[in-house]
């Protein structure tokens, strides 16, 4: 999990895929946090992505950095507690203008049953799970 976190932090932008009905939806994200032994991402409950994850929590993330890419398949689990919301906003203070812990919009999700595959054109793929 630590290696996945570090890769996503270094890449700075990753792409989160969800499903809406039978249509995949992909958008750029940048928030990632290790908190209480779990890997978290953040969004707003008012956004389509939150509604999509509520309907179908299966997600995939993809990031590219220095000639390598990472794909993560997981189940996004909403954590309504204030502590991980605060930790995320402390890690990304620029978001504090849009989000506050307990505001009814800030949402953090941890990645459950994750399989992360590191790939490149020069090395065989390697998968880790957490």
How would you sum up this structure, described in words?
The chain has 130 residues and is α+β, with helices and mostly antiparallel strands. The chain has one domain: Electron Transport, Fmn-binding Protein, Chain A (Pnp Oxidase, Chain A). 22% of the residues lie in helices and 48% in strands. It has helices spanning 2-11, 48-55, 82-91; strands spanning 14-20, 23-29, 33-35, 38-44, 58-65, 68-79, 106-120, 126-129. Strands 1, 2, 3, 4, 5, 6, 7 and 8 form an eight-stranded antiparallel sheet that branches. A hairpin with a 2-residue loop joins strand 3 (33-35) and strand 4 (38-44). The chain is globular, with a radius of gyration of 14 Å.
- The number of strands is 8
Class inferred from helices and paired strands: alpha+beta
The percent range for helix content is: 10-25%
Q: Using the coordinates shown, work out and report the CATH topology.
A: Pnp Oxidase, Chain A
Strand content: over 45%
Largest sheet: 8 strands, antiparallel
Number of helical runs? 3
CATH architectural name: Roll
Rg measurement, Å = 14 Å
Ranges where pLDDT stays below 50 over 5 or more residues in a row are: none
SSE string, helices as H and strands as E:
HEEEEHEEHEE
Identify the CATH homologous superfamily.
Electron Transport, Fmn-binding Protein, Chain A
Q: Compute the average pLDDT.
A: 98
CATH class: Mainly Beta
Outline: globular
Count of separate structural domains:
1
- Cα distance spanning the termini: 6 Å
């Amino acid at each position: 999990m630590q290696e996945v976190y570090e890769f996503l932090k270094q890449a700075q932008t990753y792409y989160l895929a969800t499903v809406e009905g039978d249509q995949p939806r992909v958008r750029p994200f940048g928030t990632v946090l290790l908190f209480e032994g779990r890997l978290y991402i953040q969004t707003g409950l008012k956004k389509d992505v939150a509604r999509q994850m509520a309907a179908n929590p299966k997600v995939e993330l993809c990031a590219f950095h220095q000639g390598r890419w990472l794909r993560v398949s997981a189940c996004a689990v909403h954590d309504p507690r204030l502590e991980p919301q605060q930790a995320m906003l402390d890690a990304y203070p620029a978001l504090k203008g849009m989000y506050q812990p307990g505001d009814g919009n800030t949402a953090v999700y941890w990645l459950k049953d994750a399989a992360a595959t590191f790939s490149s054109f020069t090395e065989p793929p390697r998968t880790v799970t957490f």
